[in-house]
Amino acid sequence: MSPFVRLARSGRPSLFLLLVLCALCLPGCQGNPIAIGFLGPLQGKYSDLGVQGRNGAMLAVEEINAEGGVAGRPLLLTAVDDANDEAKAVAAIRTLGRQEVTAVIGPMTSVVAVTVLPLAAEEGLTLISPTVSSPYLSGKKDNFYRLTPDTPHECAALARFALTKRGVRDVAVITDLANAAYTVPCADNFISELHAAGGRVLADIRLNSAAVGDWKPTAAELARLGPDAVFGVLSGRDFASLARDLHHQGTRTLLLGSMWSATQELLQTGGLSVEGALFSLNYDDNNPLPRFQAFKQRFERRFGTPPSFAACFSYEAVMVLARALEWTRGSRNGLPEALSALGKVEGVQSPLVFDEYGDVSRRGFIVEVKDGGFKTLESIEP
C-alpha cells in the first residue's frame, strides 16, 4: 500500500494505520500533507464498488505525489469503510471531519450520499462522488459534486433497446431497496419507458438484499413466470448470484442490468451465466482514447485487475479535486467555489464540466457481456 494512503474504521480513529513519515521525502513534495478522505463500502457484497473506487483514488494520489503533489505538498488519502450502512457512514463522516480532511471522495452509493450529505455540510466537508447517480440529489446548490449523471435517462434507454433491438416484450423487474435512492428511480423509469413502448411488466419485485440469503427461490419464481427478460437493479454480486441460479435451473431469459451491476466482480463471479447480459452505464470499457488505454494499463499493473467504472471515476475525482486544491492552496476554504469555476477538465474518458449544481453530463452506453468482458453496442446521447 502507498505510504500516502491510510485506512480507518469509521468511528475508531485509534485504529488508524499511521502515515509513514519517511514518505515525506518524495521528490518535489514539501510541507505538510493535504489530507483527503475516501468513503465507500470496502467489505461485503458492495465492496466491488468501494475497493475499485479506493484503488482508483490511490492511483491518482500516487501519481500526483510523484509529480510534486499539490502546491508542492503531498496528498494523504484516508480510506474509511461505510459498509453501505447509514449509521456507519455517519460515524465515518464524523471521523473524517475530526481528521480535518479537505474533501471526501465518495460516497459510492446513493443511499449513503442522501444520508450523510447534511452532516457533511455541518462538518464543512465537500463531497465529490465518483458513482452516485440518484436524481434525488440533482439540481441542488450544496456541498455535493459528482462525476456520474443521474440515473433515469440510461435506465429508460435500456428499456427502449431491449424492446426495439432484442424483441423483448414481457419483463420481470427486481429492485434492491438497500440502495433505494438509486434503485427505485432506475426501476421506475425503466418500467415507465417499457410501458410507453408497448412492453409489459410480469412482476415488479422489490426487496432488501440484506434479507436474501439465497436467490434460488426468486430464480424459481422467475422461471415459473417465463419473462422475455429480467431487469435486475442489483449489486454486481447479487446480480451474478441470481444469474447463476437462473442458469442452473435452465432458464435462458435475457438479463438486463443497470450500471451498479456492471463491475469486475459480476464478470468474475457470474461467469458464463452472465454472458449476453445487457447493461446501461456512463462508462465505455472499449474507449479508444490513448489516455484511457494508458490509465487501464497503469491500473492493472498496479492492482492486478482491470479497472471498472468505479475506479476510473474515482481516479478522475481525485484529479478534479487536485485542480481545485491548487486554487485554494490546499485549503478546504473556498473549495466549492474553486470546483465550480474549473470549467472543462479533461477526464480519462471524456471532458468533465460541473454545472451550477455540481452535476455533470456524460454520454451513456449500452453494453453486452461477451467473452468475459464488456462490449459496447451503442451510445446514448446525454
Helix content: 25-40%
Into which percentage range does the β-strand content fall?
A: 15-25%
3D shape = globular
* Structural classification: alpha/beta
CATH topology of the largest domain: Rossmann fold
Number of separate domains: 2
Radius of gyration: 20 Å
Mean of pLDDT = 91
CATH architecture of the largest domain: 3-Layer(aba) Sandwich
Give the N-terminus to C-terminus distance in angstroms: 37 Å
Query: What is the N-to-C succession of helices and strands?
Result: EEHEHEHEEHEHEHEHEHEHHHEEEE
> Numbering strands along the chain, what is their spatial order in the largest sheet?
8-7-9-10-11-14-15
DSSP strand tally: 15
Secondary structure tally, helices: 11
Largest sheet: 7 strands, mixed
Q: Spans with pLDDT under 50 lasting ≥5 residues?
A: 1-5, 9-27
CATH class of the largest domain: Alpha Beta
Full CATH superfamily name of the largest domain: Response regulator
